[in-house]
Each structure stands twice: as structure tokens, then as C-alpha cells.
Amino acid sequence: VDNIAFKALYDAHAKSLYNFILWMTRDADAGRDVLQTVFIRAWKSDSFPEGFEDRNRWLFTAARNACYDSFRHTARLRSFKMRYEAHVRTCGGDDVHDDVFWDILSECSETERCILYLHLKAGYSYSEIGTITGMSEANVRVKVCRAMKTLREKYTRSRKNGSAVDKDAG
Amino acid sequence: MDPLSTKMQDEQTLIDSVLQGKTDDVKRHVQQFPESAGLVRDIEDLKQGLRAIDDEEPPLHGEVFLKKQKASPFPRLLSLLPTDWYLNPFILCLGLVAIVWFLYVLFAFLLP
């Protein structure tokens, strides 16, 4: 891959990968580092595939693995969940809608967040997600279902709290 | 199959149908089990809400790949240390001992 082709590859895939990494880490600095690691792996790889879809899948797989490496690195002193919650409100814009859903997402495990992003945002089917994450299709299905149930509980709680606050304000 | 397993499997199928936008299946299920309407509404809300989270712009190609070249040697040395090294109890104790030893030397030998 020459420099121009590499820049084109970066421009084509960086946005979805960066947002995937942010879903996983919710940390802009870690996001940049992981993104860099993924593209360096692509640069060095002898088996980097041809074609947009195959490359996208390869890059998502590499991004997922790099995120897990990053979690292992940061989990030495603090658990990942604490880091995630700490970064929920420090990254991104001032959108209240986004804040609510980032808060809800922090309830999920990193595997569940990974699967939800790939399904809801990237539009992959369960079998494709299975290929990327190394899980069976049935396992992906169960994890999606479990994640949605967890999110629903938190969503219902946050709606109740919201209506209680509205009543207090009224 | 016991009723609990059947209920869980039904719930999973329903969540799948909502996520994949199979509206006919969802309608049929809700007509048959009206109590599942709340679940359908919540999952639909969550699906739309998660999809609507704003995408952020990634750093530019140059920003990402020139960053390491521009870094000074000092941060590179720091990167060899474990993450959050300054919170490591061992390093904190070592720092404390060094300060106490420095103060001891200062007051015991140098100041008199």
C-alpha cells in the first residue's frame, strides 16, 4: 500500500472506526491511539484484504482487538467501568439526548457495546458480527437480547427519575 | 419446554424482530400478547435513540500519523511506565521515603 492509497483507506474507514472505538472506550485520547494502532496494523499486514466490505470487516476486527488490548493496559489500577463512566460526560458535545444514551450504554459490558454498535450503527447482521467477534451467531443473538434488556431497565429507571424531577420542578 | 424458557425465547424473538424492523411479526406478536406492547415501545425507543447518537469526526490522517514523530523524548520515556504510574502505591511510598530522607539530611547535617 503506498502513501496515497493509505490516505484514501484512512479517509474511507476512519470515521466509522473512530466512532466504534469511542463506543467501546468513550475516551477521545484512547480513541486516537487505538485508531492509530489499527491503521498501523493494516499498513504492516501481509494479509490485508481487497474490497471495501472485506477491509471494513478486517478493520473492525482489528479495532475490537486493539480496544481489548487498551482495556488490559488501563485495567492495571482502575477498572474499565470506572474509566468509562468518568469519560461519559467529558467526551462529545452538549447534546442532552446523547448524554442520556451514553449514560444508558455505560450499563453494558464492552462486548455488548461492541455488538450493539456493529448491529445498530454499522448495520452488520448477526452472522457477520459473529465473524468479526469470533462468536457464534446464536451467541451474538443472545448477547444482543441480554444487552437490550439491560438497557431497557436503565432506560425505564432514567425515565422514571426524569418524570420525578419534572414533578418536583412543577 | 418449561413456560419460563418459552417466555424468554418469545422475548428474544420479539426483540430480534424489533431490531431488524420486522414490523409485521411485531404487530402479530403484540396482537397475540398485548402485554408485550411496553417492551416493543421501549426497544424501539432504544434502537432509535442509540442510532441517533451523533457521530464524531475522526482526527485527520496527518494528525494521527505525525503525532508520534513530533513527540519529544520525555513523553516517550513516560510511555514506558505503566499507565497511571503516579497513582501506584509503591511509587508513592518511594517518593514519600525520598522526601523524608531528604528532610532528615537537611536538618541533621546541613542546617546545623
Give a written overview of the molecule.
- The complex is a heterodimer of chains A (170) and B (112).
- Chain A is mainly alpha-helical.
- Chain A has helices at residues 3-25, 28-44, 52-74, 80-88, 96-105, 110-121, 126-133, 137-169.
- The mean pLDDT of chain A is 81.
- Chain B is mainly α.
- Helix content of chain B is 71%, strand content 0%.
- The longest helix of chain B has 22 residues, at 89-110.
- Chain B starts with a helix and ends with a helix.
- The A-B interface holds A 7, 10-11, 14-19, 22, 32, 35-36, 39, 73-74, 76-78, 92-93, 95, 97-98, 100-102, 104-105, 116, 119-121, 141-142, 144-145, 148-149, 151-152, 155-156 and B 11-12, 15-16, 19, 39, 42-43, 45-47, 49-59, 61, 63-65, 67-68, 82-84, 87-88.
| N-to-C span of chain B | 88 Å
Termini gap of chain A: 62 Å
Radius of gyration of chain B: 31 Å
Q: Note poorly predicted spans of chain B.
A: 68-74
* DSSP strand count of chain B: 0
Q: Quaternary status of these chains?
A: heterodimer
Instruction: Tell me which protein chains meet in the greatest interface and how many residues each side has.
Output: A-B, 43 and 33 residues
Largest sheet of chain A: none
What is the strand content of chain A? under 5%
Q: Give the % helix of chain B.
A: over 70%
How are the secondary structure elements laid out?
The complex is a heterodimer of chains A (170) and B (112).
Chain A: H1 3-25, H2 28-44, H3 52-74, H4 80-88, H5 96-105, H6 110-121, H7 126-133, H8 137-169
Chain B: H1 3-19, H2 23-32, H3 37-51, H4 61-70, H5 73-78, H6 89-110
